[in-house]
Amino acid sequence: QVQVVASGGGLVQPGGSLRLSCAASGFTLDAYAIGWFRQAPGKAREGVSCIRSSDGTTDYADSVKGRFTISRGNAKNTVHLQMNNLNPEDTAVYYCAADFTGRDAPYVCYEGNYDFWGQGTQVTVSS
To answer: What percent of the chain is modeled with pLDDT above 70?
Structure first.
C-alpha cells in the first residue's frame, strides 16, 4: 500500500523546536520530490519546504528560511523537517506530499506537481 505518514507535531512554546517526519511506504521516497506544506485556519495551503530527489535541491518559503531545515533521514524512506525558533504564525496542519508526476516545475515547492498526500500533523505554537 502506497502511503506517506506525517508525524512529530505537537504543542510548543514560541521559540521552541519540533522535528516533523514523513515516512513513506510502498515506494522509494528517494526517487521523488518530497514537500512539506501547511494550512492554517482560514488560510490557503502553502509550501513550506521541499527537496528534489534528482539533485537534492531544496526550497523554502521566505517565512521559514533560516529557521526550518528539510533533510532526508538516516532511516530509509523518511524526510524530516527540523523547525526551530517557532512562532505563533507557524501554527498549522502540516502535510507531507510526494511528486509522482516528475513534471518540470518552476520551483521545487510548486504545489501543482504534488499529487500524493498524506494526512496532516498539527503544529501549535502558543504560550
So the answer is: 100
The angle formed by the CA atoms of residues 5, 35 and 45, to the nearest 5 degrees, is: 95
Task: Please give the backbone phi and psi of residue 68, each rounded to the nearest 5 degrees, phi first.
Answer: -110, 145
Task: Give the single-character DSSP code of 57.
Answer: -
**Sign of the C-alpha dihedral, residues 7, 87, 91, 81?**
negative
Residue 69 backbone dihedrals phi, psi, to 5 degrees: -135, 125
Can you read off the three cell numbers belonging to residue 32? 521523488
Contacts of 44 (CB under 8 A, 6+ apart): none
Show the cell assigned to 22. Answer: 514523513
Give 7-29 pLDDT, tens digit per residue. 999 999 999 999 999 999 898 88
Paired sense of beta strands 116-117 and 33-39, if any: unpaired
d(CA 54, CA 46): 23
Q: Is beta strand 46-51 parallel, antiparallel or unpaired with respect to 58-60?
A: antiparallel
- How far apart CA 71 and CA 87 sit, in angstroms, is 21
